[in-house]
Design goal:
The complex is a heterodimer of chains A (266) and B (683). With 266 residues, chain A is an all-alpha fold. In chain A, 76% of the residues lie in helices and 0% in strands. In chain A, helix 4 runs antiparallel to helix 5 and helix 5 packs antiparallel against helix 6. Chain A is globular and about 65 Å long. The N and C termini of chain A lie far apart (57 Å). The C terminus of chain A is likely disordered. Helix content of chain B is 32%, strand content 18%. An eight-stranded mixed beta sheet of chain B has the order 1-23-9-5-6-7-8-2, sandwiched between helices. In chain B, strands 16-15-17-14-12-13-11-21 form an eight-stranded mixed beta sheet, with helices on both faces. The longest helix of chain B is centred in the N-terminal third of the chain and has 33 residues. Classes of the chains: A mainly alpha (266), B alpha/beta (683). At the A-B interface, helix 1, helix 2, helix 4 and helix 5 of A face helix 1, helix 2, strand 9, strand 23 and helix 19 of B.
Chain lengths: 266, 683
C-alpha cells in the first residue's frame, strides 16, 4: 500500500520508542550495550519458544483446526513465560555486571544504577519484540495492496502498529517493575508483570475485534506506567513541574564524590 | 586514571558500533522479510492468478509488436466489461483511473482494442477466454499472412502480391501485429475469472449510480519486456553486451528451432547425393501462433496437416518395394513457418549453400499439405503457382503431379479439384522454394479461395475447431484409441497422398493396398491436441526425457529455446512410424559408430523406452533404426547478421524477468494521508 503506509506504520510503532532511545540511551555507551544485550536476550527467548512451537506443530496434524489453535495458545503461553524467565536471567546477569562495574570504577560507585538498567533492559526487550512484530508487516505494506480481499479488516496495518507501540512501552515498564521486584524481594510485583503480560498477549486472540485488544492493552499500559513511575521515585509534584516546562536534571547519573554532600546543596 | 579513561572511550565507540550493527541488522531484516515467499501477511493481501498467459513483445526488422508493462508492473482498478456500453465507464466516466479491464472473449475485437489503445485511462487488460469459441470467428493474424516473404512480389507475379487477388484470411484483424503499451493477459481458468468478477462485484460496482467507494479491487500485471524498437536495435544491443560485458544482459533472442526431415530411401547425410538422383519433397508446417505467448493449439493450421503427413509416411514405408523406387521421397516438417517461413527459408538457404545433402537441382517435385481438416463435402483443392506454370518445362510436370493425385483419389472419399489456373498459391513453404528455383509443385488445401479456418492462428484453433468429438465417459486410454470421424477423414487424405507419392516416385505396382491407418491418425491427433502424456507417446520416447510429456493442452509455438516439445515428439513419432526395430543392445544403439558397418552411416539409431507390460511396472526398451534427422531452423538473417533483412525472416522475441498477475484491494488516498498525520503526531 505504498510508502505512506510503510512510513506511517513504522513511525507509529517505533516513533515513541526510538525517541526514548534517542534521548536517553544513545549518548551513553553503557546503556547502549545494555539495550542491545537486552534485545539479544529477548531474541534468544523467542528462538527457544518458537523452536518448541515449531516442533509441536510439525508433530501434529496440520488439518486439525482446533488442535492448531490450541497449539498456538500454548505457544503464546510458553513464549510469555520464557520471555519473563529470560528477563529474570538478564536481571541476574546485570546484578553481576554492577558488581563488576563497581570494582572497576574510581569511586566505588557504579556509573549506572539498577533502576536505569531496568529501564534500558525493558526498552531493549520492547524494541526487539516490536521489530519482530512489525518487520514483515512493513515489508508487505510497501506493496500496492492492502489487507482485505479475503474479508479481513482494513485496519490491519494500523492496529498492528498501535499494538506494537503499546507492547514496546509495556516491555519497558515491565522491565522496571520486574527488576524492582527482584531487588526488593517483592515477588508479587514479578507475578503481576507475568500476569499482565499473559493478559495482554491473550487479548490479541480477540483480534480482529481490535477494540477488545487495543483498549484494555492501553489501559494496562497507563496503569503500569504509573506504577513504574511511582516505583522509580517519581511523585505528582515532579510531574506537574515537568508539565509546566521546567527543565529536569540531565538524565545521566551524577558521579557522587565522597566530598560532596547532597544535603548541603539544598 | 588514564587506563580508566581509555576504557570509557573504548566503550563509547563500541556502544556506537553496537547501535550501528543493530540498525543494519534491522534493515536487513526488513529487506529479507520482504522476500519471504508466501508469508501469511502476503497471503492476506494478494490473490495470485496462476493460470494466465501473457502477451509478449516480438520484433522484426522494422517493428515491434505485442505488449509492454512498466518495470514494476501495472496496477489498475478492475472493471468488468461484458458488453460494449461498459467500456464508457473505463474510457470517460469512471472516477478512479487507471482501470484494469476484464474483457469477455467475445468482445476482444479490433475496434475495441483500438479504442483502448488510444486511452490513457487503461493500465492493462485481462481477456477471459470465451467458451464456446466466438461464433463469428476470431483470428488475430494478418489478412495476408507472411506477406512479402513468399514468392509473389513486384518482380514475380505482381498481380498476386500483397493478396491483391484474394485475401487468404479475411477474418484476420491483425491484433497480434499491433503494438500495445499496456500488458494484456489471457485468463485461461474460468474459476479464476469468477474470483476476479466476485471481487469486482463486492467492491467496485457503483451502487445506485453513486461512485464506488474505497477499498477497491485492483489487479497488477507484471510483464516488462527488455527489447524495444526492432530486431536491428535489440540484436545490436545484445551483441554489444555479449562482446563487452562480464555479465551480459541480452535483450532478445531469435526465434529458432529445428526442422525434422526423413527420406524414404536412406541417404548418406555426410556427403551430397548424386546430382542425377531425384527427390520428391513432401512438406508441412508444425507450428502456429496466437495473440498470447505459448498459446498456439494450431489444430487446423498445423496439427491436422502434419498428422496427415505422418500417416502418409507410415503408409508408404509399409509398401514392400519402396526401396527399389527410382526416386526418393523426403518427408519434411518445417518449424517456424508462421513467422515468415523460418524453417523453409533456412532449408532453401542450406541447399543453395551446399550445406544440405540434397541440392535444389535434385528436387523433382514438391507436394505440400496446407490446412486439410475442414474439407467441405470431401473436396480437397489443388493449388498451383500460375507464374511458374507458364514455363513450358514446368507445366507438364505439374500436370503429371495433379494427374497422379486425381488417380489416387479414385475409390477414396476425397474429391480432388484444381483451383482456377490464374489463382496464386496460398501462404505455404513451397513459395520459399519457388523463390529460389522454379519447381513443379502443388499445395493441397481444404479451401478454394479464403481459408475455411475461422480461427486461424488464434487460441480457439483447438480440437473442437476440427470437429474432434469423443463420446462421454471414456477413460484416457479409451480416448487415445477411439477413432474419430476427423481421424477417418484425415486418413483418407493421407491415403491419397501416399498413393500419389508412390506413383510420382516411379512405383508401378497396384496402389490400392496403400492405406493410411485411421487408428494411428486418431492417436496422433489425441497426442498432439489433447494430452501428450499418453501411453503411446510414453512408449516411443527416449528414457531420460521426463519433461517432454505433460498433462496440459499441447501448444505448438516455436519459442526461442531449442527443440520444443512439438519438434521432439514429431521426431519420435516419425521414427516410430517409419523406422524398423533392430536387435541391438543399448550400447550398440547409443554408439553405432563403434561397430563398423557402412550401412549404419545412413541411419539414425534411437533407444526408446518401450511400452509398459500390463503386469509389471518396468518397460521393455528397444532400438529403432530410422532416417529421421534434425536440421537447424534459424533464419539465415541471423547467420548472415543481416538483422534488417527483408529477404529472410527477422523475428525475435524479447527477454523478460518476471511475468505474473495478482489481485488485491487498494485503500483510499485519504487513509494514507491520515496515517501520515498520525505518524507525524507520534514523532
Amino acid at each position: 500500500m505504498t510508502l505512506a503506509v510503510f512510513f506511517g506504520c513504522s513511525f507509529i510503532a517505533f516513533g515513541p520508542a526510538l525517541g526514548l532511545c534517542l534521548f536517553s540511551v544513545v549518548r551513553e555507551p553503557l546503556r547502549v550495550i545494555i539495550l542491545v544485550a537486552g534485545a539479544f536476550f529477548w531474541l534468544v527467548s523467542l528462538l527457544l519458544s518458537s523452536l518448541v512451537w515449531f516442533i509441536a506443530v510439525k508433530a501434529s496434524d496440520p488439518g486439525d483446526e482446533p488442535l492448531q489453535k490450541g497449539l498456538l495458545i500454548f505457544g503464546v503461553l510458553f513464549s510469555v513465560l520464557l520471555q519473563e524467565a529470560f528477563r529474570f536471567l538478564y536481571y541476574k546477569l546485570l546484578r553481576k555486571a554492577i558488581e563488576g562495574l563497581v570494582a572497576l570504577s574510581e569511586d566505588g560507585c557504579s556509573p549506572i544504577s539498577i533502576q536505569q538498567m531496568a529501564y534500558v533492559a525493558g526498552l531493549g526487550f520492547g524494541l526487539m519484540s516490536g521489530a519482530f512484530s512489525m518487520i514483515n508487516l512493513l515489508a508487505d505494506a510497501l506493496g500496492p495492496g492492502t489487507v482485505g480481499i479475503h474479508g479481513d479488516s482494513q485496519l490491519y496495518f494500523l492496529t498492528s502498529a498501535f499494538m506494537t507501540m503499546v507492547m514496546i512501552f509495556l516491555h519497558t515498564f515491565w522491565g522496571i517493575l520486574f527488576f524492582h521486584g527482584c531487588e526488593t524481594q517483592r515477588w508479587w510485583e514479578m507475578v503481576a508483570v507475568i500476569f499482565t503480560h499473559l493478559i495482554v498477549s491473550g487479548l490479541t486472540f480477540w483480534n480482529p475485534l481490535y477494540l477488545g485488544s487495543l483498549i484494555p492493552s492501553y489501559l494496562l499500559m497507563f496503569a503500569t506506567a504509573a506504577w513504574a513511575y511511582v516505583l522509580s521515585g517519581g511523585c505528582t509534584q515532579n510531574l506537574l513541574r515537568s508539565l509546566q516546562g521546567e527543565y529536569l536534571v540531565q538524565p545521566h547519573v551524577q558521579r557522587r564524590s565522597p566530598a560532596r554532600d547532597p544535603a548541603s546543596e539544598g | 586514571m588514564a587506563a580508566g579513561a581509555g576504557w570509557r572511550m573504548g566503550a563509547g565507540e563500541r556502544g556506537r558500533r553496537g547501535a550501528e550493527t543493530l540498525f543494519r541488522g534491522l534493515l536487513f531484516c526488513v529487506l529479507g522479510c520482504g522476500f519471504c515467499w508466501g508469508n501469511s501477511v502476503e497471503r492476506k493481501i494478494y490473490i495470485p492468478l496462476n493460470k494466465t498467459a501473457p502477451c509478449v513483445r516480438l520484433l522484426n526488422a522494422t517493428h515491434q509488436i505485442g505488449c509492454q508493462s512498466s518495470m514494476n508492473g501495472d496496477t489498475g482498478v478492475i472493471h468488468v466489461v461484458e458488453k460494449a456500453q461498459d467500456l464508457k465507464w473505463v474510457l470517460t466516466d469512471g472516477p478512479h483511473p487507471p482501470y484494469m479491464v476484464l474483457l469477455d472473449g467475445e468482445l476482444f475485437t479490433r475496434e475495441l482494442m483500438l479504442q483502448l489503445k488510444g486511452s490513457s485511462r487503461i493500465s492493462g487488460l485481462a481477456v477471459a477466454i470465451s467458451k464456446p469459441s466466438p461464433a463469428q470467428g476470431f483470428s488475430p493474424g494478418l489478412k495476408c499472412p507472411n506477406d512479402g516473404f513468399g514468392v509473389y512480389s513486384n518482380d514475380y507475379g505482381p498481380q498476386y502480391a500483397h493478396c491483391n487477388w484474394t485475401a487468404w484470411n479475411p477474418l484476420g484483424n491483425g491484433l497480434a501485429y499491433e503494438d500495445f503499451n499496456f500488458p494484456i493477459f489471457l485468463l485461461e481458468d474460468a474459476n479464476e475469472t469468477q474470483v476476479i468478477k466476485q471481487c469486482y462485484q463486492d467492491h467496485n460496482l457503483p451502487q445506485n449510480g453513486s461512485v464506488p467507494e474505497y477499498p477497491l479491487c485492483a489487479m497488477q500485471l507484471f510483464a516488462h519486456m527488455h527489447a524495444v524498437t526492432n530486431t536491428v536495435t535489440c540484436m545490436r544491443r545484445s551483441s554489444l553486451q555479449t562482446a563487452f560485458s562480464l555479465n551480459p544482459e541480452e535483450v532478445c533472442d531469435a526465434l529458432s528451432d529445428y526442422n525434422v526431415w526423413s527420406t524414404l530411401k536412406p541417404i548418406n547425410t555426410s556427403s551430397k547425393i548424386n546430382p542425377l538422383d531425384e527427390v520428391i519433397i513432401v512438406a508441412t508446417r508444425i507450428d502456429s501462433h496466437s495473440f498470447f505467448w505459448n498459446v498456439a493449439p494450431g489444430a487446423e493450421s498445423a496439427v491436422a496437416s502434419f498428422v496427415t503427413h505422418l500417416a502418409a509416411a507410415e503408409a508408404l514405408h509399409k509398401v514392400p518395394d519402396v526401396q527399389m523406387l527410382p526416386r526418393n521421397i523426403m518427408f519434411t516438417f518445417f518449424q517456424g513457418e508462421t513467422f515468415d517461413y523460418i524453417g523453409s527459408s533456412r532449408m532453401v538457404y542450406d541447399m543453395k549453400m551446399d550445406k544440405f545433402p540434397i541440392r535444389l537441382d535434385n528436387i523433382h517435385s514438391f507436394l505440400e499439405l496446407s490446412q486439410v481438416a475442414l474439407r467441405n463435402s470431401s473436396v480437397l483443392w489443388v493449388h498451383t503457382d500460375p507464374v511458374s506454370r507458364r514455363n513450358d518445362s514446368i507445366q507438364p510436370q505439374v500436370e503429371t503431379l495433379v494427374e497422379a493425385l486425381i488417380n489416387s483419389s479414385v475409390g477414396a472419399n476425397v474429391t480432388l479439384q484444381e483451383v482456377g489456373q490464374s489463382q496464386p498459391l496460398p501462404p505455404s513453404s513451397f513459395q520459399r522454394f519457388l523463390r529460389a528455383k522454379s519447381i513443379p509443385g502443388v499445395v493441397l488445401a481444404d479451401h478454394r479461395t479464403s481459408f475455411q479456418n475461422r480461427y486461424y492462428q488464434s487460441m480457439y484453433d483447438t480440437a473442437e475447431n476440427i470437429l474432434m468429438k469423443y463420446p462421454e465417459g471414456l477413460s484416457p486410454e479409451e480416448t487415445l484409441d477411439y477413432v474419430t470421424d476427423t481421424a477417418k477423414s484425415l486418413a483418407e487424405v493421407a491415403t491419397v497422398v501416399a498413393r500419389a507419392l508412390y506413383q510420382l516416385a516411379g512405383g508401378t505396382g497396384n496402389t490400392s493396398a496403400i492405406q493410411a491407418d485411421p487408428r494411428t491418425v486418431s492417436r496422433m491427433l489425441y497426442g498432439f491436441l489433447i494430452k501428450t502424456n499418453n501411453s503411446w507417446f510414453q512408449s516411443i520416447i527416449k528414457q531420460d526425457l521426463k519433461g517432454l510429456l505433460g498433462d496440459e493442452l499441447p501448444q505448438h509455438y516455436i519459442a526461442v529455446t531449442t527443440l520444443v516439445n512439438t519438434t521432439q515428439l514429431v521426431q519420435y513419432v516419425l521414427a516410430n512410424l517409419t523406422g524398423t526395430v533392430v536387435n541391438f543392445t543399448k550400447e550398440e544403439c547409443l554408439n553405432p559408430e563403434k561397430t563398423p558397418n557402412p550401412e549404419k552411416e545412413m541411419y539414425v539409431y534411437t533407444w526408446v523406452q518401450g511400452s509398459r507390460d500390463p503386469n509389471s511396472t518396468s518397460r521393455v526398451p528397444f532400438c529403432v533404426q530410422s532416417t529421421v534427422h534434425l536440421t537447424k531452423a534459424a533464419s539465415p538473417a541471423f547467420e548472415l547478421k543481416q538483422w534488417g533483412s527483408t529477404e529472410y525472416s527477422t523475428w525475435t522475441e524479447s527477454r523478460w524477468k518476471d511475468i505474473r498477475a495478482r489481485i488485491f484491494l487498494i485503500a483510499s488516498k485519504e487513509l494514507e494521508s491520515t496515517l501520515e498525520a498520525i505518524a507525524e503526531a507520534d514523532i
